[in-house]
Specification:
heterodimer, A: alpha/beta, Rossmann fold, 2 domains, 6-stranded mixed beta sheet, B: abc type-2 transporter like fold, 4-stranded mixed beta sheet, 15 helices, 68% helix
Chain lengths: 250, 399
């Protein structure tokens, strides 16, 4: 379960002064659901997801993941979250197995459990043929699989994906999408951001449209289509964001 | 603080570090090679330069002396001098190293030997030019032996014993232990090298584990794991400290072995062999004094490198830091710079100065405790700042 409660984040910029990257964002995502966070670049998606993953601390407001507050118990939140983004790279001088082992140990798994878990994941993701290869020698697809294994190793109930398929080829992107769908089928709570509307169509139960740091619209994909009398999700985003462009664009 | 997490982070960083050739070179290869290379360089330099200067018969010029044939004949008879014909540009010839020295015999010198008063023979040479200095020494000793001959003849003519003018002899004998003799010559230099190397040993891992992580995109990966930032920074710090320590241990070991085996061949100006065996106690003491400095370097370098977004940016921040370390370390090597209570509080300079004393076998315990304690305080402050910086989003996600 993810509950974002009036999440806000401001940054101090020398030239531009205070930047309100996220303002009063509130939403709920339940187990077995995929919540899609949509919006343009710079809308505040990554900042919101980073706050949920406790990589950034909210300026005000909070979020509760699996019963743990992100401000009060960030380490417990992280122990229950798998976070994957295009910015979460792999350690180049570790092998795929060492990479996953490292995160398993940081998550407090004992050695027999870790070994069993790694064998399971590596078999499921078809990674056994490159488990002893260094990460800097892996192909993009192999790297992405290793990243998935890294987020899954401690079997977290909440998964956060920040544009996980950006820059990936079709086959690798399909692997990721399949993996996200698997996570939902296992009853995990999932939030993810993307610019690819076909992924939203295929995966998301709920979507939130964020712009200028504020959540401008929220609902199921069907609800939004009905409300805006528009099937195309891109058009729906344009209709939601359009009235706010004059206020926020510089 | 979770020791298991710190250990897990440390072990992973160690594994990556051991697979990184770039940092291994600065941490392991450089300290192992620098002392043998430096010492063999010193030996070959001293044997080539000093040996050549000593072996070659110096060319000297006599100015005047037409009315003093005896002293001129004595100089010409000396096989260790080559007297060249007089030329007006003798000063230029000395400056341009064509001749090594000249001696000016005043008019009526021989006559004044008989009737007094005592005249002065001036020896002209090139100060700081080793061959010219050797040449001047040869001329001086040749003149001294001529003076001794004159005295002996006068005493014999008056039927007086030679002991009249030299009633006793003197003989110099070194009583300082070998490590003090060796230490006095190389003490300041060793502290300097160990300090510089323990910093360079820490520098590349410090960059790699901070700015390097940001550049490679692994910083966000690790921050999304349950490890606390305190445990993360301590795990990383321990690796940087290990690298610095490894460099210090290897450099001290390499230094000890190099001086023990190769240093004996170094000769002093007086021609004696220097015993460079530093003694285990000195080596251990230098290493112990370097420990808090290693902590200081590791924490400070990590903190500065963390501000950078890329490896290159971090290098440009840390290069000026090298001068901040080199200047106080060099200041301690300068002759005449001695440890005072005020200097004992200046980091790096104080350690460099105390290492100089320790290597000569001098243990001023008050200074040692003061320096060790003050450097520990600086190290703890630097580590505290590093921990705080790792908790600042504006530093971790600087854009």
């Amino acid at each position: 379960m993810i509950e974002a409660r009036a999440l806000s984040k401001s940054f101090q910029d020398k030239k531009r002064g205070i930047i309100r990257a996220v303002e009063n964002v509130t939403f709920t995502c339940r187990p077995g659901q995929i919540y899609g966070l949509l919006g343009a670049n710079g809308a505040g998606k990554t900042t919101t997801l980073r706050m949920l993953a406790t990589i950034l601390e909210p300026t005000s407001g909070t979020a509760v993941l699996c019963g743990y507050d992100v401000v009060e118990h960030p380490e417990k939140v992280r122990a229950n979250v798998g976070f994957l983004s295009t910015a979460t790279a792999l350690y180049p001088r570790l092998t795929a197995q060492e990479m996953v082992e490292y995160f398993g140990r940081l998550n407090g798994l004992d050695e027999p459990t870790l070994k069993k878990r790694i064998d399971e994941i590596f078999t499921r993701l078809d990674m056994n043929n490159f488990r002893d290869r260094r990460c800097d020698k892996l192909s993009t697809g192999m790297k992405q699989k290793t990243s998935i294994a890294r987020t899954l190793v401690h079997n977290p109930p909440v998964m956060i994906f920040d544009e996980p398929t950006t820059g990936l080829d079709v086959m690798t992107a399909r692997t990721i999408i399949g993996f996200i769908a698997d996570c939902r089928d296992q009853g995990k709570t999932i939030i993810f951001s993307t610019h690819i509307m076909s992924e939203v169509d295929r995966l998301c139960d709920h979507v939130g449209i964020i712009h200028g740091g504020q959540l401008r619209e929220e609902g199921t994909v069907a609800e939004l289509r009905a409300k805006y009398a528009e099937h195309n999700l891109e058009e729906i985003i344009v209709k939601v964001v359009g009235p706010h462009l004059a206020n926020s664009e510089v | 603080m979770n020791f298991h997490s710190i250990w897990v982070v440390y072990r992973k960083e160690l594994r990556e570090w051991l697979r990184d050739r770039r940092t291994l070179i600065s941490t392991v290869v450089v300290p192992l090679l620098i002392f043998p290379v430096l010492i063999s360089g010193m030996i070959s330099m001293s044997s080539v330069l000093i040996g050549q200067a000593q072996k070659q018969i110096p060319k000297v010029m006599i100015i005047g002396g037409e009315d003093s044939p005896d002293v001129v004949a004595a100089l010409r008879a000396n096989k260790e001098l080559e007297v060249v014909p007089y030329a007006d540009n003798w000063k230029k010839q000395i400056s341009e190293k064509e001749i090594r020295a000249a001696l000016e015999i005043p008019k009526g010198f021989q006559a004044s030997l008989e009737n007094g008063p005592a005249e002065t023979i001036q020896i002209d040479y090139y100060l700081g030019e080793i061959k010219s200095e050797f040449g001047a020494e040869h001329v001086e000793s040749s003149l001294k032996s001529y003076r001794d001959d004159v005295i002996k003849k006068r005493l014999a003519a008056s039927n007086l014993p030679a002991t009249l003018v030299s009633p006793f002899e003197t003989k110099k004998n070194n009583v300082a232990p070998p490590e003090k003799v060796g230490g006095a010559s190389i003490g300041s230099f060793i502290g300097y090298i160990v300090i510089i190397l323990s910093m360079t040993g820490a520098m590349y891992p410090a960059i790699d584990l901070t700015a390097g992580e940001k550049e490679r995109g692994t910083m966000e990966t690790i921050l999304s794991s349950p490890v606390s930032r305190l445990d993360l920074v301590l795990g990383k710090f321990l690796l940087v400290f290990s690298a610095s320590l490894t460099t210090a241990i290897l450099s001290v070991t390499s230094m000890g072995i190099s001086f023990a085996y190769m240093g004996r061949t170094i000769t002093t100006n007086s021609g004696n062999h220097l015993d460079m065996n530093l003694g285990l106690a000195s080596v251990i003491a230098v290493f112990l004094m370097g420990l808090p400095l290693s902590i200081l370097f590791s924490a400070a370098l990590m903190t500065i490198a963390l501000f950078a977004k890329t490896y290159k940016e971090a290098q440009s921040y840390l290069t000026p830091m090298t001068f901040l370390v080199v200047i106080p370390a060099v200041a301690a090597v300068m002759p005449g710079v001695e440890l005072t209570p005020k200097l004992a509080l200046i980091p790096i300079l104080n350690t460099s100065l105390i290492c100089k004393e320790i290597i000569t076998g001098t243990y001023h315990w008050n200074s040692i405790i003061l320096i060790f304690a003050s450097t520990c305080v600086y190290a703890v402050v630097a580590l505290f700042i590093a921990i705080k910086m790792f908790q600042r989003e504006s530093v971790l996600f600087r854009s």
